[in-house]
Amino acid sequence: MGRIVRINDLDTEGLAPYRDTAELSLKAQGLFVAESPKVIRTALDAGYEAVSLLSDEKYITGQAADIVERVGDVPVYSAGKKLLEEITGFKLTQGVLCAMKRKSEDTALPAEVHRVAVLEDIMNQTNMGAIFRSAAALGVDAVLLTDGCSDPLFRRTIRVSMGTVFQVPWRFIGKSDSGYIGRLKEEGFLTAAMALRADTVSIEDERLKRAEKLAIVLGTEGDGLKTTTIEECDMTIKIPMAHGVDSLNVAAAGAVAFWEMRYRGV
């Protein structure tokens, strides 16, 4: 069971991970912060190790009581809502945060992979979290990210994903101009770029549905995929639109694509 540490001021030793809004700094220390009981439980279930907890007093014997029991002999810092907001700089709507140790980013993918989402230079943390949640819900086996992407273990991404970043295997695959499409092809993937081009096929194309291994490639929010990426892919696909709408937000487009091109078996 965690060691309860009642805090009365901002200088209590051990609060640095919760005061540090520079998440790259936390990453450099091998840490990340998860928010809400549900998300923290998911991380613990996935084998992530807690360093400490920061909790609203009432959550310790309430919604987070089971978490306090699970985390071992780590400090559980406890305070009222006002002091918690002063420490973190934001309102804790879910009442509890957990500083956790990162795992190696060289995550092994499942032995059998049929659908992967490939994210090229996607920086928006909300979009990243939504993509992971859709990927988990709609049968994507893994998420691959170029080095230009935001880190999936940033707090907002974790929260928006509802913890699915701990459930869907993911890894960084290098820079977006380093030939990663060619490597996916060598591994037997049909590569499909989502882009607004004239030379596209419909997302409903039967070749996409029948593919044994399919990589769905999504680009950054503003400019989309690099021209070289699109040209290297086997196919360029587009979601049919109505009412003059030309595109969807990348997270919404990803959800549609994951469902429409889900693996149906052979």
Give the secondary structure arrangement, pairings included.
Elements: E1 3-6, H1 16-19, H2 23-28, E2 31-35, H3 37-45, E3 50-56, H4 57-60, H5 65-70, E4 75-79, H6 81-88, E5 96-101, E6 115-119, H7 125-137, E7 142-145, H8 155-161, E8 170-172, H9 180-186, E9 190-194, E10 201-202, H10 206-210, E11 214-218, H11 227-232, E12 235-238, H12 250-260
Parallel strand pairs: 1-4, 3-4, 6-7, 6-11, 7-8, 9-11, 9-12, 10-12
Antiparallel strand pairs: 2-5, 3-5
Helix pairs in contact: 7-8, 7-12
GO biological process, one term: RNA processing
Domain tRNA/rRNA methyltransferase SpoU type: 116-258
Keywords: Methyltransferase, Transferase
Radius of gyration: 21 Å
Structural class by secondary-structure content: alpha/beta
Low-confidence stretches: none
Largest sheet: 7 strands, parallel
In the CATH hierarchy, the third-tier topology of the largest domain is known as Alpha/beta knot
The percent range for helix content is 25-40%
Widest sheet, order of strands: 8-7-6-11-9-12-10
Mean pLDDT: 89
What CATH architecture label of the largest domain applies? 3-Layer(aba) Sandwich
Number of strands: 12
Task: Determine the N-to-C terminus distance.
Answer: 48 Å
Oligomer kind: single chain
How many structural domains does the protein architecture include? 2
